[in-house]
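Severity: low
Component: inverse-folding endpoint
Summary: output formatting inconsistent between runs
Steps to reproduce: submit the following structure tokens with default settings.
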């Protein structure tokens, strides 16, 4: 991977003397980089420096002739070596964590524990690599314990075909695990053909599996908490979509619900089965019935904390915050453990705050969010190994609009357990907000590797791969396979369909994406998320008027869904719906007065709506105060200052943004550097501006091999330098590679070119 980004320019000498001269010239800078990566760990920093030197020497003979900027090449190589080191470090921590995992034994020798962990990782990787036609029936049978009959009905196959597919998957897994994966049958036969003629719903038959593979599958099944996208009906008429996690398996729900309903009818005090029934009803979107059973469980067992947590969560989703607070308070008053009391206090305060989850809020009351943070931190102090405290702390920070603190909480959870799937996936948003895109893909890949069925992680992984232009060739086929798996498992989830259609968006097949969304909305007409995503699909297909109606429909169905504001406001303004846009902007300001991103967007939109610059800048300045460590908050503030005719102040803001980028190891956000060039141009300092823009172009070009977005940035730089032909070529390359938004840049380029010609003609007329 390293080297592709800097293979530009004329050939140069690549002998050993040349290499060592270059290395010695850049070694002090690289040593400082390694020290910043392993802050406080000098030995590790020195190891990283030596490993980078060895890697650079290995690659110099092939890459050297094409390296135009050796310093940038060595910096990028060292950064990638550090990522490899960190991944290996996490793996070592995973292998040595003997106590983690149900199949572990406190007396197990370390060699056996390490070997078992290695086999577990290999087994999970091989299961994920199976083609979907084999993987899904195999997972349903071997991990979730479904019968062949049920699997056949689910996938529209014959029972014989299901058995054959399960058998083929088992053979592939056994071959991958070598001798330990083979069955211990005396005659060498494998009786594990998946036969389950009894049709029972319990754990699938393990006969024929080796003594190693059976326990491995049990441990994998234990790690895979079932997840399900639930649909919550709201009083506004819309449907709220939420990714719920369940401790129990959700397989064969309808049959199990019938069995459990019969049981609780006969045994009214059977609270354990009633709790299981309530969870299954939630997964089936029968929330009123689930609430009734959860309240009965709490009458019978007031101290049953899982029932309190599940009921409180459901009431928050239904926006019945006061009732949720009452449920949490009752549980807190009965709890004896200090950490549990702190955790419940945090949930109480968050329910008071008016937020539901990130990108969703009926209001935002900062004082309650601060109390929630304090409570979750107190719980962590008492129980530093309990991941749920870290998760709730991070989610609270996310809903508050504090990505730096949210990422710190997720990273703390990963230090407790490097395989925490929730933290690996959920850290996507705070990483993206800080421009740490290089960490996003490895974390999502790891999360999906650990739990191939975790819907939220899979959705984000497909999103990220599509955004990076991985929609063609072998990488494109894998992206499409992941997207199809997501939709097959969640056919009525707007998030799943959004990931699936994003693949077609980045192939510029916009009409196909619009058609998919129309079909989805026929089946799910009240899904507010779906209407928002449909509006985006229409916008990309250049149907802006229809997109506006879709956004308005989404907002009417669920005003708490903030993405409708995020995406809809620019289109309302562009189509001349200024009165509605102004109302939406002030609604957003009322809902999220302390969210930096909301304040930043409000300022931008108010300026576009013709409000006074001082009014717009007040909101943008508030965003900077709320998020002084976020590059984009300073950049957006500078952009508004520039448009308000205050280029000197804008230049200061852009410089602050660029300082944040340079302080953040691995950040690849470059936009503020180009904006500095624009501010310098506005100040009449053209020579300085051209120098900054050329540096920006070089940085963007070095990254364009990995992501079509950077080719788009090359075009922006060339347009600012009045190289319109070069800008057009860059925009077209970017658009061809999947960056659909480059189409709008081509329209802007046409206007800029005409404006430039007009100004040149006027200048010539004045001189004459």
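Observed output (run 2 of 3):
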């Amino acid at each position: 991977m390293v080297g592709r980004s800097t293979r530009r320019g004329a050939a140069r000498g690549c002998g050993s003397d040349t290499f060592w001269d270059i290395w010695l010239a850049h070694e002090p800078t690289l040593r400082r980089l390694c020290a910043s990566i392993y802050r406080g760990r000098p030995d590790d920093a020195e190891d990283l420096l030596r490993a980078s030197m060895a890697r650079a020497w290995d690659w110099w003979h092939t890459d050297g002739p094409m390296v135009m900027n050796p310093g940038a090449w060595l910096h990028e190589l060292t950064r990638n070596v550090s990522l490899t080191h960190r991944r290996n470090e996490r793996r070592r921590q995973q292998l040595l964590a003997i106590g983690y995992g149900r199949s572990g034994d406190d007396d197990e020798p370390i060699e056996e524990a390490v070997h078992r962990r290695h086999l577990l990782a290999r087994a999970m990787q091989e299961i994920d690599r199976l083609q979907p036609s084999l993987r899904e029936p195999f997972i349903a049978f071997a991990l979730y314990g479904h019968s062949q009959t049920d699997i056949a009905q689910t996938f529209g196959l014959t029972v014989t075909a299901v058995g054959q597919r399960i058998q083929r998957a088992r053979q592939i897994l056994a071959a991958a695990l070598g001798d330990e994966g083979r069955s211990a049958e005396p005659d060498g036969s494998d009786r594990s053909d998946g036969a389950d003629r009894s049709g029972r719903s319990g754990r699938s038959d393990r006969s024929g599996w080796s003594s190693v593979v059976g326990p491995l599958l049990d441990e994998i099944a234990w790690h895979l908490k079932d997840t399900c996208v639930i649909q919550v009906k709201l009083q506004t008429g819309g449907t709220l979509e939420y990714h719920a996690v369940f401790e129990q398996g959700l397989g064969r729900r309808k049959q199990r619900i019938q069995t459990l309903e019969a049981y609780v009818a006969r045994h009214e005090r059977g609270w354990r089965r009633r709790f299981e029934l309530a969870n299954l009803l939630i997964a089936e979107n029968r929330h009123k019935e689930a609430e009734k059973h959860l309240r009965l469980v709490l009458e019978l067992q007031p101290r049953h904390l899982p029932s309190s947590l599940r009921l409180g969560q459901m009431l928050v989703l239904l926006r019945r915050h006061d009732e949720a607070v009452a449920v949490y308070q009752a549980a807190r008053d009965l709890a004896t453990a200090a950490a549990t009391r702190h955790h419940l206090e945090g949930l109480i305060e968050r329910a008071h705050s008016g937020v539901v989850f990130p990108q969703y809020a009926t209001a935002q009351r900062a004082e309650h969010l601060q109390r929630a943070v304090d409570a979750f931190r107190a719980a962590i102090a008492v129980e530093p190994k309990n991941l749920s405290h870290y998760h709730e702390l991070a989610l609270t920070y996310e809903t508050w609009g504090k990505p730096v603190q949210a990422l710190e909480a997720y990273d703390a959870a990963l230090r407790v357990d490097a395989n925490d799937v929730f933290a690996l996936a959920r850290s996507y948003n705070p990483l993206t907000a800080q421009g740490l895109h290089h960490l996003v893909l490895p974390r999502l890949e790891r999360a999906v590797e650990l739990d191939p069925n975790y819907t939220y992680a899979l959705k984000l992984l497909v999103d990220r791969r599509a955004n990076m232009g991985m929609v063609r060739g072998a990488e494109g086929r894998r992206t499409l396979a992941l997207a199809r798996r997501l939709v097959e498992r969640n056919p009525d989830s707007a998030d799943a369909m959004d990931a699936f259609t994003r693949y077609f968006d980045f192939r510029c097949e916009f009409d196909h994406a619009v058609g998919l969304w129309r079909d989805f909305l026929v089946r799910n007409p009240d899904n507010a998320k779906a209407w928002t995503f449909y509006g985006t699909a229409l916008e990309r297909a250049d149907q802006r008027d229809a997109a506006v109606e879709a956004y308005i429909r989404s907002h009417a169905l669920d005003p708490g869904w903030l993405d409708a504001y995020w995406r809809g406001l620019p289109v309302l303004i562009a189509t001349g719906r200024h009165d509605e846009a102004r109302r939406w902007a002030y609604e957003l300001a009322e809902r999220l007065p302390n969210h930096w991103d909301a304040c930043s967007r409000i300022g931008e939109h108010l300026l576009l709506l013709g409000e006074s610059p001082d009014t717009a800048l007040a909101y943008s300045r508030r965003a900077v105060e709320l998020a002084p460590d976020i590059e984009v908050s300073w950049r957006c503030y500078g952009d508004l200052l520039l448009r308000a005719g205050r280029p000197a102040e804008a230049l200061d803001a852009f410089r602050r943004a660029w300082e944040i980028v340079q302080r953040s190891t691995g950040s690849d956000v470059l936009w503020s550097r180009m904006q500095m060039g624009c501010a310098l141009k506005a100040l009449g300092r053209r020579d300085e501006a051209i120098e900054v823009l050329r540096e920006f172009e070089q940085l963007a070009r070095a990254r364009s091999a990995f992501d079509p977005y950077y080719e788009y940035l090359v075009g922006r730089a060339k347009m600012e330098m009045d190289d319109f032909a070069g800008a057009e070529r860059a925009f077209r390359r970017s658009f061809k590679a999947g960056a659909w938004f480059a189409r709008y840049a081509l329209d802007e380029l046409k206007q800029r070119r005409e404006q430039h010609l007009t100004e040149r003609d006027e200048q010539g007329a004045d001189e004459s």
